[in-house]
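ok trying this again, last paste got cut off
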Amino acid sequence: MLNKYRDANVIREVAPFKVDGLAIPYPEFVARLYNLCKELGFRKGLIMPSRAFCSDENQGLPIILLTKHFGTFPFNHGRVGGIVAVDRHGPHSQHGEDLMILQASHVGYDPNSGAYGMYKRPQMTGRCLSDSCGKLIHVITPYLDQYLFARDRIFLRKDDNGHCLITVKNSFIDFVSNPVAQGLVLRLNKIVAEDSMGVIRPFTSASTTQTYKVSEPFKRRLDDLAYTWLSGGGQSIGNLLTADLFFFREDFHETDDSILLERNLIEFMPDIVSAKFPPLRAAKTNIQLEFARVVESIRRSDCYKERSLLYIAGLNIDISENEELPVMNYFVPWAAHVQLKDGTPAEYTHPIEQDDLFAKLMAQSPENPDQIDLKENIRRILKAPRLDIRSSK
């Protein structure tokens, strides 16, 4: 399926997704989440939680904590990458009177370096670091590779006559006679000068490149960054190749369920690949787009009508075990949708946005008197008599 990107007068943007100061340790978060459900009128023993997480083993602690605090193993609403399987709304609604959905994309975090994206796999020998979430990284990698290739092969320089120039490989240029069919496309109209007819013409040409004079607005943009123009061969554009200066025209790479993840991210891929931590930016972007899609699916679904439901979305942060710390997960809330069977108050007509949601969670007690004792439940199972189970035939 071809992703046909086109310029448009209407631009969609994702909202700012804050992390600093909003990350809640999972043991505390799930207790507060349960108490928020109780405050909304959900009833002890009748709440059916559901989770939409990736399948990585580092999502196990959140699932265990959901079981402990809600008293039942959570329904599985998730696909790869933190995508919600909206076709499972019906089955979920049949498993409890009051319903809660927790959706989260996830990303690894190293508290020592402050870097996002990697996770230490304890079940692998040696110090095995790998992507977390691997599926999300798999989806963005072809685009990230193209971006890194492009920023190393687009050059800025000043010639002997003082002209500020940019040299671009032909494969990044949407020529009228030969537009880019697949790959990264440079938005030359935001970088180079046009002639009096509004046509972008090269200053010079070579075997595989075109060289253009940069426009005055682009030059001022770099001057504001205190950029120093070099003569001779100049230098690669590097981090100055920002998200607004290019886009991707590509067939989708994915063919399985992860195509849903790629569809979510493709429009924002320039912003993702040019971010300091692409895995973090991709996770935050997916959470926002999934939340909007899932809220719409809930409102259109008959199975949740006249039912109490809390749908909450956010970011799971995975921290590897080391000599000083155990395996840990944190949750950064993003937004929530609330509907109550006896009538939804006006304050919940619209979703609860990030700051308000964090405040609501932190207003709840971090203690949950209704939580179950998992060890005692396991002991009861181990002590239970062996049943004589037979076929009815």
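PB: full thing came through this time. The mean pLDDT is 91.
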